[in-house]
Prior knowledge:
Layout: E1 2-3, H1 9-13, E2 17-20, H2 34-45, E3 50-53, H3 58-67, E4 72-75, E5 80-85, E6 88-93, H4 97-117, E7 133-137, H5 146-158, E8 162-165, E9 169-173, H6 179-191, E10 200-204, H7 210-215, E11 219-221, E12 238-239, H8 244-263
Parallel strand pairs: 1-12, 2-3, 2-10, 3-4, 10-11, 11-12
Antiparallel strand pairs: 4-5, 5-6, 7-9, 8-9
Helix pairs in contact: 2-8
Amino acid sequence: xxxxxxxxxxxxxxxxxxxxxxxxxxxxxxxxxxxxxxxxxxxxxxxxxxxxxxxxxxxxxxxxxxxxxxxxxxxxxxxxxxxxxxxxxxxxxxxxxxxxxxxxxxxxxxxxxxxxxxxxxxxxxxxxxxxxxxxxxxxxxxxxxxxxxxxxxxxxxxxxxxxxxxxxxxxxxxxxxxxxxxxxxxxxxxxxxxxxxxxxxxxxxxxxxxxxxxxxxxxxxxxxxxxxxxxxxxxxxxxxxxxxxxxxxxxxxxxxxxxxxxxx
Length: 264
């Protein structure tokens, strides 16, 4: 990773939009900082769309999709897309209802098995809002060590689930969707164009972002990614000085400055 200020300004100036994680990338324990919200408004005003892709549940994400100046939020690691269409919440799924119903029973069976076999394991407190996945808390309100986290991931895989680890949760789901497919889906649905990775930057903070770090030509980690660097096989291209929302706001300022300079 290189410091963000070393990123060539022409690389930032030619970007069309921003893809971003939410937890510990936009928000922290105190929620969305005013500086970060302003940066979202500044990007929108400059015609730079922002699409957020998160492991958080649909129910948790709906209010943000309605209130934040974003083109879309894709929740549950690519399964549910939320958009504000002229004041009305639009919710779309990447799987049909019959598939989701069948998967739900398998997901609950896996969750029950994890809770029974992993000492200290608890469901994430946002689980009531989850429609297509399960989440085990490891750092938000509970604590699991590295060995316990790997045990949960292994059990999820035994049940036929995909498993990823975010900065706060272990997420498990059934299907081929992920953050990469979410980018393709959301850009097409929300903006009416094909997704070209070279036109976007991805911003993240943890191990469940490394698929995007590996595939995106330009990616940025906020400074608190340092916690996960030893576990990452794919690193972002650049890293901000600021952590969480302050880091995102830093990227927004640099990007908008580069665009203004190119225009001048």
